[in-house]
Amino acid sequence: MKRVTIYDVANEANVSLATVSRVINGLEIVREDTRIRVNQAIEKLGYKPNAIAQGLALQKTTSIALLVPEASFNYTGQIISGLLDVAKIYKYNITLHTTSEAIIQIGEIIENIIKSRVDGVIIYNDKLMMDELSALTKYNFPIVVVGNQLSSDNIASVYVNLQKAMFELVSSYLDKGMTDIAIIQDRKNKYMVEQLIKGASQAFERKGLVFENFIEIPREYRSSYTYLREYFKKHKHQLVVAHRDSQAMAVINAASEAGLSVPKDMEVVCIIDSKYNSMMRPQISSFAIPSYDLGAVAMRVMTKMLNQSPIEDKEIELSYLYTPRQSTK
User: Under CATH, domain 6-58 is a member of which superfamily?
Assistant: First the structure.
């Protein structure tokens, strides 16, 4: 069922948006017959004022929930900064909610957020797939997902095409005759790594080859580094790709302990890096992901959805830039 908005009430009562807002907020500068007509429209449509409607007259802010996993804080700082800057411009309040790996029932978390009377939710969490998000449509409020490419009537997304980035990277190595390319599993970023595998597989298929080198971290190992120390004693690749710079650092250190030199014996690339990469030697080649813009654009899309403004595309793709450094030749 479509969510009834203040715009619907204005159309039903044949008055302006500002007039509906004045009636809702009990201001006395409305004629009595107009007040009655607006209240009749509210009752007929079953409209329940939210923070946006009240904010039109009282200058109150609308509350938006931001949901991020605890494990991603190192990589969401710039996203949150971009989101907050845009929120300030449009006078929105942001409430931060976190999930941990121990929490599986994401729907339960969202339900609790909704009970706190927010007007919309922005989510950075790659464990959420379309099926899970679709179950949330019963709430009839806008959701903006950062990172995943998906959309529906009340869901929009802002993302970087990691599959395309990986396709281009792997294709450049295959064109040079380098086929021994591996990707490391990242249990904290399952969706992102799936995109990397798809991109690599697409590049291999273009050459009539099959991508097979996925380095899976066994469950019994608490960290990638612990496992990689053993792995590189028996294995070596021409290129290893990690999603996060912390994993790429684990690759470089574990390879060094096994007597392998980066980039002479093995090249290493990470998709997302942080300020710590500038302190690493060798510095790791990576993709420049517009994290701040991801947050800023996500918040702008949310304001449009809340105000029923037209949105040309509910799946907004932002660009990336590959930056070669010391870990590649």
Answer: lambda repressor-like DNA-binding domains (1.10.260.40)
